């Protein structure tokens, strides 16, 4: 198993017919926003990959940096969320993936629905189709 995010996942093995292996990756929402065309490439090349979105609906890595910068510059920390929260509207990454020909489910908000969704997605991946599960994660 190789863990990479979608924009990097299209290049490394396994590619088409990868010896029965499944490329699995977790994906954060902010990273996928930067390169949604990677979804098209994976569908076009029929890459057998399973993507599970760890969708916390935010750019949290940068948000922490914004808090640090606000403190350093004596600015209100309460404003650090501006441009960092990915809501209103909430992106539907499953819909985005389906628009590129992927099998996709979500957004999944109830943890009990995740297991069955993974079983269905793995079956699609084993059949040679990329699959994405958009699982809503708790904001920190």
Key traits:
4 strands, Rossmann fold, 140 residues, alpha/beta
Structure, explained:
The protein has a domain of 85 residues: Thiamin diphosphate (ThDP)-binding fold, Pyr/PP domains (Rossmann fold). Helices cover 37% and strands 17% of the residues. It has six helices and four strands; from the N terminus they run αβααβααβαβ. It has a four-stranded parallel beta sheet with strand order 1-2-4-3, sandwiched between helices. The longest helix is centred in the middle third of the chain and has 14 residues.
Task: Summarize the structure in short.
With 140 residues, this protein is of the alpha/beta class. It has helices at 6-9, 29-34, 37-44, 60-73, 93-99, 114-126; strands at residues 23-27, 49-55, 103-108, 131-136.
Rg over C-alpha atoms, rounded to the nearest angstrom: 17 Å
The CATH architecture assignment of the domain at 21-58 and 90-136 turns out to be 3-Layer(aba) Sandwich
Q: Mind describing the biggest β-sheet? A: 4 strands, parallel
The backbone outline, from C-alpha atoms, is elongated
List the helices and strands and how they pair.
Elements: H1 6-9, E1 23-27, H2 29-34, H3 37-44, E2 49-55, H4 60-73, H5 93-99, E3 103-108, H6 114-126, E4 131-136
Parallel strand pairs: 1-2, 2-4, 3-4
